[in-house]
From TrEMBL:
<feature type="region of interest" description="Disordered">
    <location>
        <begin position="1"/>
        <end position="30"/>
    </location>
</feature>
<dbReference type="GO" id="GO:0045892">
    <property type="term" value="P:negative regulation of DNA-templated transcription"/>
</dbReference>
<dbReference type="GO" id="GO:0046872">
    <property type="term" value="F:metal ion binding"/>
</dbReference>
<comment type="similarity">
    <text>Belongs to the FrmR/RcnR family.</text>
</comment>
<dbReference type="InterPro" id="IPR038390">
    <property type="entry name" value="Metal_Tscrpt_repr_sf"/>
</dbReference>
<dbReference type="InterPro" id="IPR003735">
    <property type="entry name" value="Metal_Tscrpt_repr"/>
</dbReference>
<protein>
    <recommendedName>
        <fullName>Copper-sensing transcriptional repressor CsoR</fullName>
    </recommendedName>
</protein>
<dbReference type="Pfam" id="PF02583">
    <property type="entry name" value="Trns_repr_metal"/>
</dbReference>
<dbReference type="GO" id="GO:0003677">
    <property type="term" value="F:DNA binding"/>
</dbReference>
Amino acid sequence: MAKHEEPVTDAAGCAHCTPPTDKKVEQPHKKALVNRVRRIEGQVGGVLNMIEDDRYCVDILTQISAVKSALDGVAIQILSTHARGCVRQSVMDNGGDDAIEEMMGIVRKLIR
């Protein structure tokens, strides 16, 4: 955590941003997220090997699709934590308009 006040923890045990200007946040399931991203990293390495080994295009594309799906899963998990933590707290503190707009901006990026 950055040098600031302790994070607020909600009923689910999720720590989230305090104050809203501090963009660092403690992920409640950090170890699991790190493990998932490391597996995805391995999948990307596998795609690279497939390309280097001149594998069949459809097989490579299938692996790329799996990587994208895995990354989407990580994004959904982090977005859920953000909504239940940072955004919920912002709504309770000040109506949450800025936090909701920020979250909707990232949702728009994710669905492109």
